[in-house]
């Protein structure tokens, strides 16, 4: 093909390609709610926002995103259930919104309701669960992980990690379900380990 014919072919092709490019949508769908929780303050997040539907990305845009930034869909469900229970009164042995919650009752309720996961009743037994992924370092924590606290390595408290170094839990008598910072001296000294529980259903 001569240079003159090649130039003519390129000019003709451009007439068809240019309009398609100009019409391509440029909007980018919002990030999943779990990533919002992991990336910044939780002060402005509500259960409604946690449960908001996220439009699927086009295949090419999804491929361009690092896999570490894409949270499983069930994480949003766990966060929505947890946030909806903020303010529920503490009750030793409690395991429902109507009764109130202790720490393990809250975790068992949230994961059972959102993941169909069957967890042991006591926090120390949860920490010994088989089949859950053990998280070796705090820097590897992800939203939805279970975080365990205690003294001398003996677990006596559990919560759900919500990102940004924070976790939701039922603290103690006279208090309500709340979000606390793992950076507080009390919790920092008592941190023992973390587990990642996957959904029991697909």
Automatic annotation (TrEMBL):
InterPro entries: NLP_P60_dom, Papain-like_cys_pep_sf, Peptidase_C40. The keyword Electron transport does not apply. Gene3D superfamilies: endopeptidase domain like (from Nostoc punctiforme). PROSITE patterns: NLPC_P60. It comes from the Bacteria. GO terms for molecular function: cysteine-type peptidase activity. The keyword Transcription does not apply. PANTHER family: MUREIN DD-ENDOPEPTIDASE MEPH-RELATED. This is C40 family peptidase.
